[in-house]
């Protein structure tokens, strides 16, 4: 059986529990499901974040995520995976991204989820504009995210 892969880039919110159920329903070959949910933060560094506006390059974003999903499937014995990334305006407390990985054993599910999130944070074709009391500005890449992604190339 080929591992099911779901990749969606959407403006509307998603339901994490529904996505886990969709991936694992009726499956007896899954022993571990790992999820990562990225949520828009509120206050940070004294600046109140009113919203994030996420932009992407349609078509390219899906293809790039699929390329990395395929790499995760090649590296780890996964039974399936889901990646959902939102675009548009999100406010504090709202979902931004979801990664769900399923495997027979937890280590593969954990590592694949980390790999996919490290990629999404550093290389996926998404751009974030933060709006707050200080105005609007593009969110810059963070060194610690680049360092986390670099471990997968070793």
Structural class label? alpha+beta
Outline the low-pLDDT stretches.
none
β-strand amount: 35-45%
* Cα end-to-end separation: 30 Å
The CATH class designation is Alpha Beta
Percent helix, as a range, is 25-40%
Major sheet description: 4 strands, mixed
Give helix and strand order, one letter per element, not per position. Answer: EHEEHEEEHEEH
Total domain count: 1
Number of helical elements: 4
State mean pLDDT (0 to 100 scale). 90
**Oligomeric nature of the chains:** single chain
Quick gist of this model?
The chain is α+β, with helices and mostly antiparallel strands and 154 residues long.
SSE layout and pairing:
Blueprint: E1 5-10, H1 16-24, E2 32-39, E3 49-56, H2 60-75, E4 78-86, E5 88-90, E6 95-103, H3 106-122, E7 126-132, E8 135-138, H4 143-150
Parallel strand pairs: 1-4
Antiparallel strand pairs: 2-6, 3-5, 3-7, 4-6, 7-8
Helix pairs in contact: 2-3, 3-4
Structure description:
The protein has 154 residues and is α+β, with helices and mostly antiparallel strands. It has one domain (5-153): Aldehyde Oxidoreductase, domain 3 (Alpha-Beta Complex). The chain contains four helices and eight strands; from the N terminus they run βαββαβββαββα. It has helices at 16-24, 60-75, 106-122, 143-150, and strands at residues 5-10, 32-39, 49-56, 78-86, 88-90, 95-103, 126-132, 135-138. The chain has a four-stranded mixed beta sheet, with helices on both faces. It has a four-stranded antiparallel beta sheet with strand order 5-3-7-8, with no helix packed on it.
């Amino acid at each position: 059986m080929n591992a099911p892969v779901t990749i969606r880039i959407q403006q509307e919110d998603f339901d994490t529990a529904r996505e886990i159920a969709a991936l694992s329903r009726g499956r007896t070959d899954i022993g571990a499901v790992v999820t990562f949910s990225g949520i828009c933060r509120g206050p940070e560094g004294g600046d109140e974040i009113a919203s994030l506006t996420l932009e992407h390059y349609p078509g390219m974003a899906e293809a790039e995520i699929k390329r990395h999903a395929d790499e995760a499937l090649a590296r780890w014995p996964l039974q399936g995976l889901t990646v959902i990334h939102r675009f548009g305006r999100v406010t504090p407390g709202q979902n931004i991204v979801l990664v769900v990985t399923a495997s027979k054993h937890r280590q593969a599910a954990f590592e694949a989820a980390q790999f996919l999130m490290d990629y999404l944070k550093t290389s996926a074709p998404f751009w974030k504009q933060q709006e707050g009391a200080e105005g609007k500005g593009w969110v810059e890449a963070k060194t610690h995210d680049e360092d986390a992604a670099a471990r997968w190339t070793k």
